[in-house]
# Entry
Amino acid sequence: MKQKIKIDDYMDKNNMEITKKNKKLKYNFIISGIKKSEIQHLFTLDDKELIDKGIRKIKVDEKPGFPCRLSLEDANIGEEILAFSYEHHKSNSPYRSSGPIFVRIGVEEANLQINEIPKMLIHRFLSLRSYDVNGMMIDARAIEGKKLEDTIQEIFENENVSYIQVHNAKPGCYNCQINRSLP
# Structure
């Protein structure tokens, strides 16, 4: 009989999911959000400049509801965030893509450990899009976030998969990228 484990049993001090110490994964992975250096300039713009660029400031009114693509954490109620279009798949392929994202103001980018899964992914319905080294999609599936670790292992069984992009399945917004990692 499979032992039931609470999600909180997997959380470290930074509210990130970690793999149980004794669990050995066949395929190591690293999850990354967007780079602060790509968007740092947005934090210096005034409200008019933001609007002119199609960027909106939003006051968070529910949690969860506004996942930050920089910190890979859900924004807190009352926090101010930026909403803007971001090119998340910069490949020279038909799958080049951009879409709306949220970013918390005044936070640092996530710096996750190997095989560490942010809590914000666990409680969402996710769309996983797998790509080869040329940016061509070779697999896509929708899953409950609590099944992410097992699904990553299944997807990386295919040696042609170079990376996985994670989206929120219902609104379709980009969340983060999963790359293969050496132990």
